[in-house]
Amino acid sequence: MRQETMKEFGDDHDVRDEGRPVTRHLGKAVLVTGAARGIGRAVAETFAAEGADVVACDVGAPVQGAQSTTAWRDDLDGTASSVRALGRRCLAVPVDVRSQASLDEAVARGLEEFGRLDVVVANAGIMQSAQFWEIAEETWQAVLDVNLGGVWRTAKAVAPHMIERRSGVILATASVQARSARKGLAAYTASKHGLLGLMKSLALELGDHDVRVNTVLPGAVHTPMIDNDETGRLGGDSPRTAFFRKMAALRNRSALPPSAVAAAMSWLASDEAGHVTGAELQVDAGSLILPGLNH
Ligand code: NAD
């Protein structure tokens, strides 16, 4: 009997090395929030590698109320450079998803530049880490406002265009925390649980207009969001990696590359998924099928 062996994936594994349809999104334009780094950057690069032009959005100093992010320009410029290196156009726009005006402007600029927006990926998110009784009011508000309100505003900004065209796909990055809980992540978990309800509602209301709405639930992804906490780097032999290994069916793939999430989004946005809406796709190395996320 032929024995399949599971490939051990290193920190720098990129699912795009596995081969991809490079014309899947040819001629399309995609807007991505949280595009300066992590999953958002991988989404921008994946869609560009598959033919799409990109509106790359991330929080920037010009937006009132936004946190000062001195590294932002470089990061968003890095995304734009990657997209352009792949032969696609990229518009880098400062957007704070807490502001409807900045999202409306990003959509308007994207339409002006590319004439269309086929796919919108509402990905921007922040995480808090504290016991629920220690979460400050402003932290609670910020997490809900970015992770849940931000997706609502992003969809709201693009919906009129997609309804008019009777075409389009809206995707959001939720999390396995949308279906489970972990100590110290109350606000984040509440925001992601709420996001599933929001996305179901959008799928229902936009279905009449042939606009599809789907959600991806990543497990532990190798990005700055979870790479910098006190339990050490994700990857290699760190305690963090051991922790996530225990919680995944695919133990050798428990720390996902951002490109794994982007690949799922690319499929959900493609014509191959033309009958898929209201879906919640786990990209989590099988962590949700195991008990024990309540650590
Ligand atoms: P990240 O911190 O590396 O990147 C998030 C990006 O969002 C940053 O560039 C940040 O500047 C941007 N952002 C934050 N607040 C914003 C705002 N108000 N307006 C616009 N942009 C803003 O994180 P990541 O891991 O790439 O996370 C992306 C998404 O994936 C988030 O929604 C996160 O909750 C989700 N997610 C991440 C993981 C993981 O393990 N990394 C797992 C599940 C879900």
Q: Which oligomerization state do the chains in this entry correspond to? A: single chain
Query: Which stretches are poorly predicted, pLDDT < 50 over at least 5 residues?
Result: 1-6, 62-70
Number of discrete helical segments: 8
Secondary structure: number of strands:
7
Shape: globular
User: What count of domains describes the coordinates?
Assistant: 1
Q: Could you give the distance between the termini?
A: 39 Å
Keywords: NAD, Oxidoreductase
Protein name: Putative short chain dehydrogenase/reductase
GO molecular function, one term: oxidoreductase activity
Family: Belongs to the short-chain dehydrogenases/reductases (SDR) family.
What does this protein structure show overall?
By secondary structure, the protein is α/β, with parallel strands linked by helices. The protein has one domain (29-224, 256-288): NAD(P)-binding Rossmann-like Domain (Rossmann fold). It contains 8 helices and 7 strands. The chain has helices at 38-49, 72-85, 100-114, 137-165, 186-207, 224-227, 239-246, 258-269, and strands spanning 29-33, 53-58, 90-94, 119-122, 169-173, 212-218, 280-283. A 7-stranded parallel sheet has the order 3-2-1-4-5-6-7, sandwiched between helices. Helix 1 (38-49) crosses helix 8 (258-269). The longest helix is centred in the middle third of the chain and has 29 residues, at 137-165. The protein is globular, with a radius of gyration of 18 Å. 47% of the residues are buried. Mean pLDDT is 88; it is low at 1-6 and 62-70. It binds nicotinamide-adenine-dinucleotide.
